## 1
Amino acid sequence: MSVSIKKQIGSTLIVIGTEIGAGILALPILTAQLGLFMSMIVMVLSYFLMVYTSLIIADINLRMPDGASFSRMARQYLGAPGEIISWIIFMLLMYSLGVAYISAASSSFKHILPDINQNIIACFFVTFFGFFVMKGIGMVDQLNRILSFILIITLAWISFIFMPYIDINHYFDSNLSLKIFALSCPVILTSFTSHLTIPSMRLYLNSDPKVIRRVLIIGSTVPLILYIGIILAILGSIPLYGPVSFMDSIFSKKDILMVNIADILTLLEDRMNTKLVTVTVNTFSSLAIMTSYLGVSMSLYHYLIDGLKLNRIKKNSLRLLLGALLTFAIPLFIVIFYPNLFLRALAFVGSCVVILLIILPTLMTYQLDKQKTDYYYSISKIKSLRILAILAAICIIIAEQSMAWL
């Protein structure tokens, strides 16, 4: 059965929306000290690595029954130890992302609506978007199309209106250190995480390998282009040193891990001092958080339904209640008690992403080799790429763990 263009566009936008989340607002914060040249190298390498591993995961998932989760894939090809590791890492990953996006949402909307309590904002945000997630991927697709379209237009507009403020000399500033590099690599890698949507999206696309490949590649290439655009715009407009700069307004006042969305929004407003920039950046930050939270929470919800066998519960209201509590309540409570966990949560996600989305899928391909099974994508069977992926993953884990003593 052929897949309609409408579904293909919708699925591509889900991938784009999931990747272009609140993390895009973390990129200028990190790349300001990393430097433009090093940032571009890390970003392009992260893009290729994550596109490669997303195709591997799609290849493996296409061999599984409809709706098969990461834990079922791991059990099939890595046995019980692989399933247990997959379960633990997946839950840590998804809840960390949920915490990061809810924290970013409450910080961003609090910046826009200062008179409203931040916890109330967080609760409303989770309730509103949780409703669409529980209605199914069709509803998520429809809402996400609207949000993603506005998001892309807004991001392009930001790049345009920032042009008068850009000073090329700012691109040569950096404050590179091992700590900044160790923090930046995992967060940049996480900015290309669309893998989590594959089990849900595959069913939506009738398990068509060619369509899935097209959706994943286009869905990751668009964010790469937009990331480069936003980094060029913000780093060119805001100096690293001096009055109203990254070092003066953000890094001199707090630990980089405690920086939240409101900090970068305030800096941009102080630097540009125009109503147009303020409204545009606030709109963009809100949309970025919304689209990413939709994709992440949808993936977690479907994972729990499959992994905990909630679909076997006959009483519909009880099934929905359990799914909602497990998907939305846990990260919400964490944010209520610890509100400024945005960058810290994103940094923690890095190791989870590396293990779950790079190392485990790559190991699964070796099991597929033993079965002498034909791959849907020829890139999945190139052993040299697997070795490079695992080496890159090990380097990223070492870099992230080094944060403890840097």
Note: The CA atoms of residues 43 and 188 lie 6 Å apart.
## 2
Amino acid sequence: MAFSPEKRAGTLSGILFVAIFAAAATYIAGLGPIHKLGLSPLVIGIVMGIFYANTLHNKLPSAWESGITFSGKKILRFAIVIYGFRITFQQIMEVGVEGFLVSLIMLSTTFILGTWLGNKIFGMEKDTSMLTASGASVCGAAAVLATEPVLKAEEHKTAIAVSMVVLFGTISMFLYPVLYTTIIENATGFLHMTAREFGIYVGGTIHEVAQVVAVPASVPNAPAEMANSAVIVKMTRVIMIAPMLIVLGLYLSYSAKKEGGEGADVKLVIPWFAVYFIGVAAFNSFHLVPQNIVDNINVIDTFLLTMAMTALGMGTRFAKFKGLGLAPVYTALGMFIWLVIGGFIITKLVCGII
């Protein structure tokens, strides 16, 4: 046990160590040039954690490992639960059926495509394929973090998935404003999108919440409707983490039972933290907590997520990446092409029909 009498001191020291790294990552993320790039503290935290893992790892007490593990497991799940304070069901209702359908279609198709490409076409392990797919299909690094405990995946697999989110999410952040100003805004017929449609397209296809916010801000004279639609559709995708993880848990349980035979005793994998996440979002929808307190909760939650990401980075050794080659890049590229092109088509069809 992490807090047994003989481990308590080492665990607390490890948690404090991770917290110091997370504080540094938060400070760096707020610096002007870094902030403009849209890099969240979560991403900087995992980079710092990986640097530590491959340089100073053997220089510090091994007793601290229990605290690092606690940060990457227990603190992570708690942070995912209170992530629900960022969402209300009213926000989801605001984008209507179009935003919901685009979110649902893009999430499910991207996850299935990414898992299939990674595992069947490019030969990656199923865990790595699913983690990479969850990052692209739902909400970037936070989705990878949420999926990791359901799969019980190793830290280096999480790091691979997050790195793909960073790479292609950053490309999206610069590509989408150019697409809009040079093609979409000036086109006629099927290629043209209204500001609201483009917002739905952005929210339904770009990886990170911060990247979604950055795109409308980069479009000259963008109507407020564009930014509002983008953020709300994105948050609709975020809340879909919970049902996706529950379905994934049922699938893993079914697969394990099928592989083990009829008599296999297989424990049903239900990610209860995902259920609690929905409960927190539902509670937040009643607006019982003052907004300033909710804002403070979200600041604390971002820090806890940064701690979890940093801890996962601290468990990542470069030696574990051997043999993967460019498979994660090819998998993420395939999903990126689908999100940009397929997402555009899906958005136009859904908005045109409804």
Note: The chain is about 75% helix and 0% strand.
## 3
Amino acid sequence: MVGQLSKSVTLSAERTMRKWALGLEVKQRMEDERAMSRLEQSIRPFVAISRDTGAGASELAHGLASRLRWEVLDKEVLDYMASHFHLDKAMVKVVDETTRSWLLEMFGKWLSRRVVTQTEYINRLGKVLVMAARNASTIFVGRGAQFILPREKGLAVQLLAPLTYRLEYVMNEEHMSADDARRYLKRKDRERRDFVREHFGYDVTDPHLYDLVVNLEYMNIESAIDLVVHAVKQRFPEVFET
């Protein structure tokens, strides 16, 4: 009799605990949904540019910023992260849009305080992108901005260019030989693809991820700027109403 009573009490306690845990789970989910809703409402329209290495995305971004009077966040994000979060800029640069081995991720901090892990980088990057997007309409270059920020608030652009165009661009900008530039392009393109796949679960080369794909094979950068400006005004007409 005592055993049956004890078993009954235990089952009752288990049911109570399950209900309590379920209630907490539902409450947390509702709080997360409300927080996400508030976040989405505070995010301003933005442009997220994904690019082939050497396609001139920085030039496109600054041209758009001049025309739209928006902000640009490209490599400046590294300076901001280093300053705001008291990180070593050199270490932030090492993990910028790259993937790192699990060994370094696990033991890097133990080996050196100067190491910035990939997890830390992604966490801080997300905070910086959200802060920027809440502060002003911004043009983001790479770094998975379209996967971090609310998709409906942004125009996702993919910028492509032929290999000859990209080789010439990198040779001039980085002062490299043709062979070195070719290796550089291959490495950077691979790192960026791996970065997006590992941290956001997408194939960055999939055209369905973008609202607009711009190929510079038969178009100069000024024409590309015109095209993106038109797309932005079509997507966010309320921003430009006077």
Note: Residues 46-240 form a domain with the Rossmann fold fold (CATH 3.40.50.300).
## 4
Amino acid sequence: MKTQHNDISSREHILLVALKLFANQGLERTTVRQIAKEAQVNVSAISYYFGDKNGLYRAAFTEMMPSPMDVDALKKSAPTLEQFLHALFNTFIAPLKQGEMAKLCMRLHMREMVEPTGMWADTFTNEIEPSLHFLQQALQHYLGLKTIDDDLQRLAISIVGMGVHLLCGRDVIEQFCPQITNTEQALNQTHAALIRFAMSMVEAESKRRKTL
């Protein structure tokens, strides 16, 4: 009988192989037999760990990236805006610390947008929308606003956009200024800079509103 350690290693190995194939070929053009052959396992192993190809795809889509921000837990801690921004930008920085894994995950996520299976809709509903809503509320509280207006929406989208560009524009960054993301120390410095830039944007918006 396999040990628990070997079970975990086998499952992760299958997931990594599947991630590469799904990212490069998509769900429909990737077969269970192809995954089993590339992973050098029996088809039954995929059934054992994931049930079927759709189960394996869901696992590859959701498990290979670092865990998303736990909005509910964060709300309970009543963070300051700066603390929330730290947690928010960590959802973009943490995947980059995975190296090539992050590229595969982003390729799969981008493919999901043009070849939807329903996973992107789930991600938006369960991860993106709650995080954006919490950011809007944090900004509303910080700016002392009665309602979430269009300019606050623009501010929230602009702040999130800095993190999104790190992931989606990684190839450009690696060509233009690789030194800001090519080591863990550089990523930590970029993380701190994103928080600093976001706070500057918020302060600029606060100052603008006071002149109205």
Note: Residues 1-5 have pLDDT under 50 and may be disordered.
